[in-house]
Amino acid sequence: MSARQPMRTDATRRGPRNKALVASLVGGLAALSPVAQADGPVPSPAALGITESVLQYCGPLDPTAAARLRQKIKELEQGASEQQLAEVRKSDEYRNAYDSVVDFVGKIDQHNAKRFCADTPVAPK
Hints:
There is one protein chain. This protein has a domain at 37-119. It has 6 helices and 2 strands. The protein has helices at residues 10-27, 45-58, 63-77, 82-90, 92-105, 113-119; strands at residues 35-36, 41-42. The protein has a two-stranded antiparallel sheet with strand order 1-2. Helix 2 (45-58) packs antiparallel against helix 3 (63-77) and helix 2 (45-58) packs parallel to helix 5. The radius of gyration is 17 Å and the shape is globular.
């Protein structure tokens, strides 16, 4: 390592990659369309799982991001019955999406946590 180059920490080495992964995860929500059911449209289990997991992590850290995420969840849930939402939340697809975010945010350096929440895009409806 050259004397001119500062030592890079884990957080700086993974920062851009982490941001790209989050953008990819959450940005992928736009591609997941609701499935129509008799009671109304059911949100994509992956979209709901990712959004709720990010909210769980960011809620205590960034009130502005939490408000955006709550609004996105309302949009995803719109038109679905409580029973349909319960079924979605029980699905393997929801659980896998939720857990993938939990695993990811567990690797974020605490110094970057607020930045992660502020930079997390909320996909359009």
